[in-house]
Specification:
The chain has 828 residues and is an all-beta fold. It is 3% helix and 59% strand.
């Protein structure tokens, strides 16, 4: 559910009256206080002669009451007259799963009525109710009662001084009178409710009458008081008290001082509970400078991993004035709809997908609250049906990739798989021989469209059988392999080799059949290792060197590779004859004299005698015996083949060459809570670094600080000529605590672009929480270019007030918070 809960309807969200039971201990009365024997309880001579009987009378079950439910009575003194029993001194009555305590109780056995006076306590029931009152009357068989001068709670168990919350939404209340009209049905007269601990709660709801029944609490004409000061008048409130904690209603309105792009923001949403498994939110916001922005969210949670979540956002933009000399209004509105779900039909058959539709990249760039999403120019949609059995996998796949080259309308590429059918088998032994075999096959209907190029209704059929022979002996691992691949295309393309068409190929209806034979060899010698004793630090350092050599040959494709319609990685196969090597060094640390660890440490993997990888460093490079890749290279263009993509994701091939860049992958975790990852590609032919990425982070206590640095000098393509795209960004981040932690918490993040010399993004958010309230303030700054009003130059001031188990009033939401989402992997 959306974290905001409408003040006029669901301010009671934190007041979740789930009542549940707790049996409290009974104190032994003083030894000097005599015990009066009850005339209705004859002595039982069969009981042992226990001197403790003089201090505490023996509890005996009463005969069945009128309701047919037995009860047990403890008291220091008891007397009876007819069916009326008078109990005094630390009286305790156990009835069903309720415990009733008082200084004095008069109990009428025939009607199950009782009058209690002095320190009355009632605890128990299926919803953990706890009531303290000065006095009260109860009828046990009908679950009716009247209590006076009441303080109590729902969903809170007490055992001495210990307090345990049995629900995520505990409900605490007080009142002049509390009426019980049936089990789980209460009415508070002249009372208050809160989630904060009494007697000095941070906030309270004050009302003449509060009713709780049928799984919900409701009240009218209520005042909301914070720190003793009434600030809101609420004509009506309703909140669920069942286990789901969900109730349809209007949410807290959004009121924001806005931003330099949106202006002031006013919004409202309606939350609808469809059933136990589905709910949805529908609403809209109004930007004073731009117009209405409808939004919504649908959620479904089924058995197991089944789920579906749909989110939509839109802007009906009335436009912004164009930058001179252009005139008129520029419309930056759009629609962004995303859906993610999974359905398991059987343990071996499932449907899963992630689908998104974005009508305008400008809309995302200007109005998306998340920085990473705002700068992402790709929209990927996938939907697949998969069935696996005994290592054989059959699947159907629908896919759509939309990538925007710029903010100019129509400057985009679209690739469609409508659909693709696949059959794959896991490698398995060929009979009783040591040979392993596998098969991959697919049948697809493809389309690709971009400016000045359109290829529709292209069929592709692919078959790829392969075999391998794993050999392992004396630490050596040798895996030779062979494969035969055939791919048929119902259409093709003709490359623009001269640049007459600006480098854009021409679609052709001529079919193309690509057949290739492959051979490979993977050789891994025995790993070299040596231990170094570090007695001063009680550690053993193990250094391991893992070399690997590979050879791969592909033949039969030749210059046909230039005519293959490029849709995905299946289409970038070329002739090759290449040798690759890699050298991986690993460093492990282990105590020289291990100490015994506790079972908890062993279960969590924190035993002191366990080895830990201290650091690793991998260096790899490939040598191409066929520098032209079977004449597949188009000179002075960006060429991406599977031989190069297997090594690095950074494009580097613009002409014939024999050596690839050297890649370096370093991981360092020698110090607890410190992690460093450094990836670098160095091109010895061009004499420069193609990519240099560094991510480092360190945590201590509640604080995490880190730094990300990314530099790129990759091959780009402008028209018919290869160029170099340069990028260098620095992204520091800091987080102290969490947004829900008591006390002061802080988060800050940013992104600086050295190429453009601008702070593309910067944000800071401070939170202070105490008791059951919190205050948040934040600042965000976007500068993503502002060419002809198609970029983003925005400043935001954010605020929020949080009530525990209730919601947040303000404009700080999950989408624009600076704090890191704990469900996501760490940044470093």
């Amino acid at each position: 559910m959306h974290p905001r809960t409408f003040v006029f309807i669901t301010l009671l969200a934190l007041c979740h009256p789930l009542l549940s039971g707790q049996i409290l201990t009974n104190a032994v009365p003083p030894a000097t206080q005599p015990v009066q024997a009850s005339t209705s309880q004859p002595n039982d001579d069969s009981l042992p002669d226990d001197p403790g009987e003089e201090l505490l009378p023996t509890a005996k079950p009463e005969p069945l009451s009128a309701s047919g439910v037995p009860l047990t009575i403890h008291a220091q003194s008891q007397s009876s007259e007819g069916d009326t029993r008078t109990l005094a001194g630390n009286v305790v009555i156990n009835y069903r799963d309720y415990v009733i305590r008082a200084d004095k109780i008069v109990y009428h056995q025939s009607t199950s009525e009782l009058d209690a006076d002095g320190h009355l306590e009632v605890a128990g029931g299926p919803e953990d109710v706890y009531i303290e009152a000065s006095r009260g009357e109860m009828r046990l068989d009908m679950h009716t009662a009247r209590f006076y001068d009441v303080n109590g709670s729902v969903g809170v168990r007490r055992a001495g001084v210990a307090v345990v919350y049995s629900t995520t939404n505990p409900f605490l209340f007080s009142g002049r009178v509390l009426l019980e009209t049936g089990e789980g049905k209460y009415r508070i007269i002249d009372g208050t409710m809160t989630n904060c601990r009494l007697p000095r709660p941070d906030w309270q709801l004050i009302s003449r009458a509060i009713k709780m029944e049928n799984g919900e609490a409701s009240t009218a004409n209520t005042f909301f008081k914070i720190f003793g000061v009434p600030i809101f008048y609420l004509p009506y409130l309703r909140h669920p008290v069942n286990e789901t904690g969900r109730e349809s209603g209007i949410l807290i309105p959004v009121v924001s001082n806005g931003s330099s792009i949106r202006g002031y923001t006013f919004g409202e949403q309606v939350y609808v509970v469809l059933n136990r498994s589905m709910d949805m939110v529908i609403g809209s916001e109004y930007f004073s400078k731009r117009g209405f922005a409808p939004n919504g969210d649908f959620r479904y949670k089924g058995p197991g991993l089944d789920h579906l979540q749909v989110r939509w956002n839109a802007l009906l933009d009335r436009g912004i004035a164009a930058t001179p000399p252009a005139t008129g209004l520029v419309n930056q509105g759009g629609v962004d709809i995303s859906a993610m779900g999974r359905e398991d039909f059987t343990p071996n058959t499932r449907l899963a997908g992630n689908v998104e539709y974005l009508s305008s990249y400008v809309y995302r760039l200007v109005f998306d609250d998340n920085y990473s999403q705002a700068v992402n120019s790709e929209v990927l949609s996938t939907l697949g049906l998969t069935h696996n059995h005994d290592g054989f996998v059959a699947s159907g796949y629908f896919g759509r990739l939309q990538t925007f080259a710029s903010t100019a309308p129509g400057n985009e590429a679209r690739i469609l798989h409508l659909p693709s059918l696949r059959f794959d088998s896991l490698d398995r032994p060929l009979g009783s021989s040591p040979i392993y075999w596998g098969l991959n096959a697919s049948l697809g209907h493809l389309s690709r469209a971009e400016p000045d190029f359109h290829a529709h209704n292209v069929g592709r059929t692919e078959v790829y059988p392969h075999v391998s022979l794993p050999l392992v002996f004396d630490g050596w691992s040798i895996v030779p392999g062979a494969a035969l691949g055939e791919t048929f295309y119902s259409g093709s393309e003709t490359p623009d080799l001269t640049g007459a068409n600006g480098g854009t190929p021409t679609a052709s209806h001529d079919p193309l059949n690509r057949i290739d034979g492959e051979a490979s060899l993977d050789l891994r010698p025995p790993a070299l290792e040596r231990d170094f004793g570090l007695a001063k630090w009680n550690r053993v350092l193990r250094h391991v060197i893992e070399p690997e050599l590979t050879y791969r040959f592909v033949g039969g494709i030749g210059p046909k590779a230039q005519n293959v319609l490029l849709v995905d990685t299946s289409d970038i196969a070329t002739n090759t004859s290449e040798v690759g090597f890699s050298l991986t060094q690993r460093f492990y640390m282990k105590p020289l004299h291990p100490v015994q660890c506790s079972p908890v440490e062993a279960a969590e993997g924190r035993c002191g005698h366990q080895a830990r990888e201290w650091a690793s460093w991998r260096i790899a490079q490939e040598f191409f015996a066929d520098p032209n890749f079977g004449r597949a290279i188009i000179p002075n263009r960006r060429n991406v083949f599977d031989s190069t993509l297997d090594l690095s994701g950074v494009a580097f091939l613009t002409s014939a060459r024999n050596v690839s860049p050297v890649i370096s992958r370093l991981r360092f975790e020698a110090i607890d809570n410190l992690r460093v990852e450094w990836d670098m590609d160095y091109d010895p032919r061009l004499g420069h670094i193609g990519a240099d990425n560094l991510y480092a982070g360190y945590s201590w206590g509640r604080t995490t600080v880190g730094l990300g640095h990314a530099m790129l000098n990759a091959v780009d393509e402008q028209g018919s000529a290869a160029t170099t795209i340069q990028s260098q960004q620095l992204q520091p981040f800091l987080q102290i605590g969490k947004p829900s932690t008591v006390g002061f918490n802080l988060a800050a993040a940013g992104g600086y672009d050295f190429v453009h010399g601008a702070l593309q993004y910067g944000g800071v958010q401070a939170v202070y929480n105490w008791g059951c309230c919190g205050v948040m303030v934040g600042y965000r700054r976007f500068e993503l270019g502002n060419l002809n009003n198609t970029g983003r130059d925005e400043t935001e001031w954010l605020y929020g007030v949080t009530l525990a188990n209730f919601g947040t009033v303000g404009d700080i939401r999950h989408s624009n918070t600076i704090f890191r989402d704990p469900n996501l992997p760490p940044l470093y």
